[in-house]
Amino acid sequence: MPPATASPSPAHPSRVRVIHSGGGGKPGPVVYWMLRDQRLADNWALLHAAGLAAASSAPLAVAFALFPKPFLLSARRRQLGFLLRGLRRLAAHAAARRLPFFLLTGGPQEIPALVRRLGASTLVADFSPLRPVREALDAVVGELRRDAPGVAVHQVDAHNVVPVWAASGKVEYSAKTFRSKVSKVMDEYLVEFPQLPAVAPWDREQPEEVDWDALIDRVCSSEAENVPEIDWCEPGEEAAMEALLGSKDGFLMKRIKSYETDRNDPTKPRALSGLSPYLHFGNISAQRCALEAKKRRHLSPKSVDAFLEELVVRRELADNFCYYQPQYDSMSGAWDWARKTLMDHAADKREHIYTREQLENAKTHDLLWNASQLEMVHHGKMHGFMRMYWAKKILEWTSGPEEALSIAIYLNDKYEIDGRDPSGYVGCMWSICGLHDQGWKERPVFGKIRYMNYAGCKRKFDVDAYISYVKRL
Ligand code: FAD
After folding, report:
1. Which ranges are annotated Low complexity under compositional bias (predicted)?
2. pLDDT tens digits for 336-375?
C-alpha cells in the first residue's frame, strides 16, 4: 500500500535537497534548470520537476543557461560544439513532446528573471560539485530569496547512482572506504526509472526560436585559441544509447567481454566503453548504464563488475572529493602526507624539464608520452591507462608539483572531450598528489607518490603498436 502522504516526486527522497522551501507564492509552473544532466530520458531532476508539476496540475519548462567565461567558455570549440549540438537535439525532442525549452545565452544570471516572468512556483536544478556551478546556483538562490521568496528551489542529484550527499557525509580516503558505503545502499538507488509524469499543457511565454547554426558559429569562433571538434563521437541521447546498446557496436552488446582483460591496454581502445563524453555532458545516465550492465552480467561477470567499479565507485568517488573538498584542483586539496612528501622532494634534480608549451606540442624525449599527448590533442580522448602515465611524467619533468598539477589540468581541460569533469580533477590529483592512493617506496621527485615508468609500460603492452596507432589517428 502506498504511504498515506505519498510524495509527488518519483525520485528517492534523499536524492532531493530543498535549498529554499519557498511557499506562500502563487501556484505556477515548475522550471527545471538543466545543468550537468543534458538529457530528457532517465533524468531524476526532470522526473522530480514533472512530479511536482503534475501534483499541482501545473505545466513544466526546461531551461539551460550557457555559462560565461571562465568556466564553460574556457571550453574550446571541441567541447562547446559537442555541448551545443547535443542541446540542439535535446531541444528538438523537447519540442516534439511539447515541453518548452528555454536557452539562455546571457548566463545563469538570467534564470531568476525567467522564473519570475514565467510565474514559476518551483525551480529544480540538477547537481554538480564543481565550484563555478555551485557559485552560480548560490547566486540564483540568493536573488530568488530576495526578489521572489515564494519560489521554492530544489536540487536533485541526477548524475550519481547514489546521491553524493547520501553516499557519504565526508571526503572519503580511498575507493575502499567509499566502496563499502556505496555497496550498502546501492540496491535502494539502482532502480528502474519511472515514466515522466504527465503535466498540464504549457500556456505561458513561448521560448524564443534558436538559430543553432548561428549560435554554434558565434560561440565556437569566439575562442581565440581553438581546438577543433571531433567527428568520431556524435553528441546527444540517441548516440549515447547507441554507444551503450547499439546492435552494431554497442559496448554492452559484445565489447564488454574483454573489458576485464584488455582495459589497461592502450592498443585496444575498443575494450573501453567510450562513454565518458556522454557521461560528462549528461547525455546518458550512469544509472541507465549500470542497470543495463547488470542485466548482461551473465555475458562476463568479471568484466561487468570491473566496469561497474569504474562507472559507479571511481566516478562517484570523484564527485565525493570535489563536493567535500573545495580545493579539488590544487595541492592544498591533497592529504598532508602527500603534500609533505611532494614538498620534501620539490627541489630534487630533474633529469628533464619541459615548459608547458613543449609538453603541449609533444616535444619530449619520450615517444610514448608524446603519442599519448597527441592522442589527446587530435582524437580528443586519451586512453585511460595512458592518462596515468601522462600525468605522472608531467610531475617528473616540471619544476615542482604545483606547476605539474596546473599544467596537467590545463591540458586535460583544453583537449579532452570529457575534460572539465570531477573525474579529470581527481585523475590529475591521483596521479600527481597521491589522492585516494597509498604511500609507496620513497624515490626522487615523486617522494612517496606512486611511480610509473616506460619499462613498466613496455612490460604491459606493445608500446610501438600504440605509437603507430596514434600516428594513424
Ligand atoms: P571506461 O573504462 O569504459 O569507464 C567507464 C566510465 O567509468 C568512464 O566513462 C568514467 O565515467 C568512469 N571511469 C573510468 N575510469 C575512471 C577513473 N579512473 N576515475 C573516475 N571515473 C572513471 N575521466 C573523465 O571523465 N574526464 C576527465 O577529464 C578525466 N581525466 C583524467 C585524467 C587523468 C590524469 C586520469 C588518470 C584519469 C582521468 N579520467 C577522466 C578518468 C578515466 O581515465 C576516464 O574516465 C576514462 O578513460 C574514460 O574512458 P571510457 O569512458 O572509455 O572509460
Report:
1. 1-13
2. 999 999 999 999 999 999 999 999 999 999 999 999 999 9
Cα(421) to centroid of ligand 1, in Å?
A: 10
283-307: per-residue pLDDT in tens?
Answer: 999 999 999 999 999 999 999 999 9
Q: Is the pLDDT of residue 224 over 60?
A: no
Q: Tell me if 168 CB under 6 Å of ligand 1.
A: no
So what's the pLDDT on residue 53? 97
304 grid coordinates? 561487468
Atom nearest to 418 CA in ligand 1: 26
Backbone torsion region of residue 362, taken as left when φ is above 0, otherwise alpha when ψ lies between -120 and 50, otherwise beta: left
Q: What number is the ipTM of this complex?
A: 0.99
Measured between alpha carbons, how far is 339 from 343 in angstroms, rounded to an integer?
Answer: 6
Residue position matching grid coordinates 562476463:
300
Asked whether 311 lines ligand 1 (CB < 6 A), one says yes
Can you give the pLDDT at residue 252? 97
Residue 54 pLDDT grade (very low, low, confident, very high; cuts 50, 70, 90): very high
Q: Compute how many other C-beta atoms are within 10 angstroms of the C-beta atom of residue 138.
A: 11
Q: Which atom of ligand 1 is nearest to the CA of 388?
A: 36
Atom of ligand 1 nearest to the CA of 269: 52
pLDDT given for residue 72 in this prediction:
62
Nearest CA to ligand 1 atom 9: 276
Percent of the chain with pLDDT over 70: 96
Which residue has its alpha carbon closest to ligand 1 atom 44?
Answer: 384
Rounded to the nearest angstrom, the distance between the alpha carbon of 277 and the centre of ligand 1 is 10
